[in-house]
Amino acid sequence: MLHFNKYLFGALALAFSFVSCSDDSPGTEPPAPEPSSFAVWAQLGSWPNTNYYLMGVNSLTEGSFKLEGNGIDVTTILNNSVITKGGFYYFYNTTEGKFGKYKIENGKVTVVKEFPFTHLLSLAGHTWIDDNTLAMIGGVPGAKAVNYAIINTTAMTVTRTGTVSGLPAAPDSHPLYRVGGDIQYKDGKIFFSVINYNGSDFTLYKQLNTMALSYPDFVVTKVSTDTRTAGLGNTSGYYATSFVDEAGDMYFLTSWNGILAGGENSKKSIYRIKKGSDVLDPTYYMDVEAEIGFIAASGLLMNLGNGKAIIKYQTTADSNTAKTRFSIINLATGKEIRKLTEVPDAATSERNVYVEAGKAYIAALSGTGTDYIWIYDSATDKVTRGLQLEGGYTSFSRIDKLQ
Amino acid sequence: MSQKSILFIFLTLAITVLASSLQAQNRSTLSGRVMSAAGEPLEGVTVAADGLNLGTKTEKDGHFTIAFERPGAYTLVFSSVGYGASKEKVRVEPGQRHPALQIVLQPDTQQFREVTVRGKGEARQLREQAFTVNAIDTRKIANTTADLGQVLNRTTGIKMREQGGVGSDFEFSINGLSGKSVKLFLDGVPLDVLGSAMNLNNIPVNLAQRIEVYKGVAPVELGSDALGGSVNIVTNQSLDNYLDVSHSYGSFQTHQSALTGQYVYKPAGLVIKGSTFFNYSKNNYLMRGVEIWDPEKYEYVSRDFRRFHDRYKSWMGQVEIGLINKKWADVLFVGVGYTTYDKQVQTGVRQTIVYGGVLKDGEGKNISLRYKKDSLFNNRLNIGVYGTYSYDHYVLSDTTLRKYSWDGSYVTGNPETGSLRLTHVNRPRLFARLNATYKLAENHDLNLNYTFDDVENQTYNSLTSSDDDMPGKLGKHIVGAAYQVKLFQKWTNTFMGKYYGIDLNKKQYDYSLSKIVSLRDFQNYAGYGWASVYKLSPNTGIKTSYEHTYRLQDVNEVYGDGYQVLNNMELKPEASDNVNIGGFYGSNSGRQDWFVEASAFYRSAKGFIYANQYDNNQLQYQNLSNVLVKGFDAEARYHYGGVFNALLNITYQHALDNTRFVNNNSSGGQSATYRNRIPNQPWLFGNLDLGLGKNLAYGGGARLQFTWSTHYTHWYYRSWEGFATANSLATIPRQLVHNVMLSYSMQKGRYNASLECRNLTDQLVYDNFRLQKPGRAVFFKLRFFIS
């Protein structure tokens, strides 16, 4: 029989105790919190653990909010390219090949419905045909075409998919197509633009091709071009770069730009397609930098009503180090009304403005640790300070209405 | 300083040392041979000049050579365990070779009767050094089917997080620092020099004799920019004949073969050594409860399916031929090597991302030269030179345009990885190392190490281009100097200094000039460290070590690609201050043997490099985060003769986000996660091993051995703990995995058979969020070893 050392028994007892006493979950299910009216998306954390949290708040105009213990971690389910309508989120998960409908409830994201979907390389743009019908466009592998899909978001079924026919021919020097988020549904037709680029040095061909397409078969019926810019609206979901106003006129911003041959950067401009027209309004062109003195930031042009729109601009020329501010423009004239100097310099973020009833709710990440929702009222032209957000965040990516 | 000029200095230095060694041969030398009374040559006999700090040891054939700086009369003392000492007076004349001495030692039978030697293995000796080292003697576990990564995962401070089965991607961490922070070596040579097929998760244990893990602070011999630590796999360096052949077969159609061997032709001092391994596995283990679309129900449902696209093959062959025990070289080897692998990729970062057509294949080739000469300058100087040229090539292919499901079916879709590609990566590489140790005086040693590592990175998609016309090239020059002093025979201190020079060279397209231009930069950094051990008794000591160290920038991190990835000339290397404090205690009584060691560690790592994505989809590598890790690990081992052994270890690491400001800016609002525990990282884990063995009377030295091992990892959060609602906070669940092995050996380990079961209780095991690892698996291994 072996003569075991008494210390050995002690060590083994300790070993078995530590391998057997651990609980397997962090805690029990907590009580369900009250449903929130709005969601402010915040990104935070040091790399590589930069996570997205959704802050559910009941008011954007008053009170304060602290994320600790109250954020809904959406990192493994959604990202900030979601589409929102009627209190639901819609998300095309390209890596998993599925399209889903989601709801925020009980302090987490719940799946309403998901189904397999692979028809778009990625979501470039979307527009609502009606409250139940979502039209989406995106590129294809090889970038030689543009695909579309129409979804019934109530039944969560695919109504129709296909490839856009009749795209304007690509020049030999720039044979690939890029499509963005500047899509709108107007006058029973679909409108969006394509540009062409080169797959080796990635330079853009200096020509914007804006198209009118029949719905629901996505056949190009009219093409109008402009050579003053070669940009598109940034991908929707993440950004908001186009709208149809109360008068039925469509406006879009070409903020997704690039380098032209020779190293020149393409301009960021606002275009209009009048109600009843299928082509770019030849009388309307707004060179954002020339008008407001600053380059438009990525992807934010929203309709405020009252003939006004809000646009985000970058405070310095280097887009990668620039802070952003906001300007109010007169839509009809394409002239700046004023800059919102009351709102502090803010990190770029993405879709950090929510517009409702003529008011813009701006989540400006000042980098000081305490931030606010700033409210611009287009009727009174006044800026007020709303909800206080205790932070230290990397960005405010979105503001959405949940109910 | 340019790369070429530094290479020139290196070669000049090498030639100077070699010339010096030849010059040393011109001094007065005395040679001879030591034999036993029975006329057998005696190896390892100590030959010392009485009263001088001068000596050598006899070689296999009993020969020795000793060089004297000055002429004169000396007394040589010959001694060896088991033999009585012998003294011989000699007279040395200037610049002459003297007739060979013939010495005969008489056996000291009294000594044999009275002395019992309780030796310490090399692994134990390493653990008692000043550096904080996990030293694993793989010879003792040679019958296991585990790879080196799985072996290391059972030691303190080490975490090997695998994404799947054999050959899967993994993250290896030492005391909480992982990825590029940790450097891997094979006999002191960076492992990836030998090809991308060589990795911790496919090298069988039989290729290694020992594994050394240096935590936080590494000796200068491993000349590298290791921020968090280094792993050195040491192969059999003996000059004996041996052959070790093994093959295992097990679950998921897994085959693993290994062969290492060496033949020494003594009359000519000719040595041929080789090693090879082959791995094959279908990795078709069961995935439980994965989702699949049910068109009838029009919803996703959960089912169990076997993995269907995870086959892995790898092969390595390395041959060296050389000469030993020559006057001008103790060792001179030339070698060639080849590695290849063929890997199917089953999933993306989560198991809901199912691949069915993604492949990764690669091969590497290398030629090498190894030279070693000890006992130069009156036995004061030892030098070693190693050089290799390698060419590594791999292809990542994604060309199917399909979306797969877990049942293996697919629909037409998009590229599985997001891009249609046949991405080729070619890496021609030149690596050279010079290591010299010089004995300044008794207990005072100097070590100098210079490493030159030059690698070009060519990446292109062959679907759209035929080559990379804008490759990046990185030359690293690392010089390390260490001074080791032993005070009062108990206190050993090592002081280290390191110089890091990086030569960055990248071709890039200039849009304004409409042509490709060449960009270049050279940067210098200095590191330093100290390691100290104080022996309270022969088996007990306390130790501490510190190093300020770097992980240097890659070329593409600095220059980007000029389009999608912007350059960042302000990018700094990742830097860390690493501290270890620990101790060890060993004791023995009769057949019992104890060894306990514990260590506390502190890591303050700054400026981790990550790609920051801007709104315009461009990326830029920046020093984006800082990490502070504090923790401890401890291990206790017990042996009762050859009958019973036990091992228990535990590691606790508290890794905090030390990034004070958002995006690691120098000012502004304090980051919300500052001083929060880093998520998605194990922080408490441990192991228990129990072994029971019995030597059997039959079978010519047969032995039966049973081993039980348990691995535990505490659950941890997927993302930051303090911010999310409890309902949305994802976790990586607890792991409690048991492995058992029964092995039978005959003829003192010549013939071996073992049966091993991993994950005995068939637990659902995760190292990463929603990436299941294999369930229960059984392996059978046969091994033949002769020496």
What would a concise description of this structure say?
With 403 residues, chain A is mainly β. Chain A has helices at residues 6-20, 288-292, and strands at residues 38-44, 51-57, 64-66, 71-73, 83-85, 88-93, 98-105, 108-116, 125-130, 133-139, 146-152, 157-163, 176-179, 184-186, 189-197, 208-214, 220-226, 242-244, 250-253, 269-273, 286-287, 296-305, 308-314, 324-330, 335-339, 353-356, 359-364, 370-377, 382-390, 395-401. In chain A, strands 3-29-28-27-26 form a five-stranded mixed β-sheet, with no helix packed on it.
Radius of gyration of chain A: 24 Å
Q: What overall form of chain A do the CA principal axes indicate? A: globular
Identify the overall geometry of chain B: globular
Give average pLDDT of chain B, whole number. Answer: 88
The beta-strand count of chain A equals 30
Helix percent of chain A reads: under 10%
Structural class of chain B: mainly beta
What percentage of the residues of chain B does DSSP assign to strands (E)?
A: over 45%
Residue windows where pLDDT falls under 50 for at least 5 positions of chain B: 1-26, 110-117
Range of helix content of chain B? under 10%
- CATH topology category name of the largest domain in chain B: Maltoporin, Chain A
* Widest β-sheet, arrangement of strands of chain A: 3-29-28-27-26
Main beta-sheet annotation of chain B: 22 strands, antiparallel, barrel
Membrane topology (chain B): Multi-pass membrane protein
Keywords (chain B): Cell outer membrane, Membrane, Receptor, Signal, Transmembrane, Transmembrane beta strand, Transport
Family (chain B): Belongs to the TonB-dependent receptor family.
Domain TonB-dependent receptor plug (chain B): 126-229
Topology:
The complex is a heterodimer of chains A (403) and B (787).
Chain A: H1 6-20, E1 38-44, E2 51-57, E3 64-66, E4 71-73, E5 83-85, E6 88-93, E7 98-105, E8 108-116, E9 125-130, E10 133-139, E11 146-152, E12 157-163, E13 176-179, E14 184-186, E15 189-197, E16 208-214, E17 220-226, E18 242-244, E19 250-253, E20 269-273, E21 286-287, H2 288-292, E22 296-305, E23 308-314, E24 324-330, E25 335-339, E26 353-356, E27 359-364, E28 370-377, E29 382-390, E30 395-401
Parallel strand pairs in A: 3-29
Antiparallel strand pairs in A: 1-2, 1-30, 2-4, 5-6, 6-7, 7-8, 9-10, 10-11, 11-12, 13-15, 14-15, 15-16, 16-17, 18-19, 19-20, 20-21, 22-23, 23-24, 24-25, 26-27, 27-28, 28-29
Chain B: H1 3-25, E1 28-36, E2 46-49, E3 55-57, E4 63-68, E5 72-80, E6 83-92, E7 101-105, H2 109-114, H3 122-127, E8 133-137, H4 148-152, E9 158-162, E10 170-174, E11 177-178, E12 182-186, E13 189-190, E14 210-215, E15 229-234, E16 242-250, E17 254-265, E18 270-281, E19 286-294, E20 299-306, E21 312-326, E22 329-344, E23 359-375, H5 376-379, E24 381-398, E25 402-404, E26 410-412, E27 421-441, E28 444-461, E29 472-487, E30 491-510, E31 515-537, E32 540-551, H6 555-559, E33 565-566, E34 574-589, E35 592-613, E36 619-640, E37 644-657, E38 684-696, E39 702-713, E40 716-717, E41 731-732, E42 735-746, E43 751-758, E44 766-768, E45 771-772, E46 777-786
Parallel strand pairs in B: 1-7, 12-15, 33-36
Antiparallel strand pairs in B: 1-4, 2-3, 2-5, 5-6, 8-14, 9-10, 10-11, 12-13, 14-15, 16-17, 16-46, 17-18, 18-21, 19-20, 21-22, 22-23, 23-24, 24-27, 25-26, 27-28, 28-29, 29-30, 30-31, 31-32, 32-34, 34-35, 35-36, 36-37, 37-38, 38-39, 39-42, 40-41, 42-43, 43-46, 44-45
